[in-house]
Amino acid sequence: MKDFALEKWFGKYEFAVETDIGSSCIRPFGLAEFLKETGAQFPTDVSLGYRDSKGSLSLRQTIASRYEGATEDNVLITIGASEANYLALRVLAQEVPSAVIQFPAYQQLYEVLLSAGVDVSRWQMSIQNGYRPEAAEAGTMLGQGALLVITNPHNPTGALLEAEDLNCLHSAVAARDGWLYSDEVYSGLALAGQPRPVTAWRDNGRTICIGSMSKSYGLAGSRIGWMVGPRHIVQQCWGLRDYVSICPPALSEWLAETALERGAEIEARNRSIIDANLATVTEMLPLLGPKFEFVPPRAGVLAFPRINTEMTTWELCSLLAEEDSVLLVPGEVFERPGHVRLGLGGDPEALRHGLKVLARRLV
Ligand SMILES: Cc1ncc(COP(=O)(O)O)c(C=O)c1O
Question: Which of 82, 112, 182, 301 to mutate to test the pocket of ligand 1 (most atoms within 8 A of CB)?
């Protein structure tokens, strides 16, 4: 498998810089803030032994209740969405000859398929049409029995597939006896004035949805994610996870259940962070000038502006990291040079500082 370019970039700079304006998480909770915000008591009675290797029954039930027609048997709790993606795509690679992926994409979503010999084509999102996905186009690209892989809301562009787009994709997939795979780790992040993201889940035996506590709940360090899918696929993934991680971390399951119960409060917190950051970007646009072409996200916490400079975006982001201590993600790691990934989930003051530094580099 090729190096995971985005994770390599973070591996080099994430903990070396002072200002991070490229990450995809909402500002993470500290434990004290989490307890205060949720009103929960730290659970001193949790057993720190091994857990149910599918994930605790109550957490699987809580998650299943969010997906119409799903039961706990459709759910596997994983170590982040990363493990869910790895297991599910390894298993699906045995079922499908080809795949179409919404692109650019989180590299894991296609690299696992490619490494298993699946023929992968790219359904391109483009800034020319404001990152509006043309669902009908994806349908025309699908071969017989193919897997369609979407990320909704989208990383890195902030694009959103709405309910009617998802209907259109489901029809195209069903017409070819295919599969629909939807990575929904950003789904809890609705934006003011935009439609709420909805899940692509259907209890039709051919849909797999992925979720996580990392992005929408500010709990990336809990490493809790999940998949919801047909029982036989979930069973196979469960079998594979015995070779990878055995079971989810004990305390983290408590964190996840507590956060899911207090979803409304956490969503309000997230909304205020992203609103403040979007307002900051809007205010800074005149300073950033015409070399910074910004399309606001429709959901989630990410934007993928185009940068029109002489130097490459790799060179620009390397300079920012090494000389200015500002982390931005170059489009090269998404195989889309000339763009940068901007994260809108952090501290607005840090974003203001990072964008000022970027503006100086763009003059
Ligand atoms: C689309 C997508 N899927 C999965 C992941 C992995 O998330 P987790 O922290 O839950 O493993 C990420 C992380 O950036 C992502 O952007």
Answer: 82
Q: Which of 240, 261, 282 is the last residue in one of the domains?
A: 261
> Which residue matches tokens 């989810």?
248
CATH number at residue 356: 3.90.1150.10
CB atoms within 10 A of CB 315: 13
Give the number of domains in the chain. Answer: 2
Query: 87 CB less than 6 Å from ligand 1?
Result: no
DSSP string, 199-226: ----SSSSEEEEEESSSSSS-GGG-EEE
Instruction: Give dist(CA 337, CA 354) in Å, integer.
Output: 20
Is 212 touching ligand 1 by the criterion CB < 6 Å? yes
Quick one: average pLDDT of 177-194?
96
Chain segment 291-305, per-residue pLDDT in tens:
999 999 999 999 999
Structure confidence by residue, pLDDT tens digits, 136-182: 999 999 999 999 999 999 999 999 999 999 999 999 999 999 999 99
Domain that holds residue 272: 5-30+264-362
Check if 80 has its Cβ closer than 6 Å to any atom of ligand 1: yes
Please indicate, yes or no, whether residues 49 and 107 belong to a single structural domain of this protein. yes
The atom number, within ligand 1, closest to the CA of 212 reads 10
Q: What pLDDT is stored for residue 107 in this prediction?
A: 98
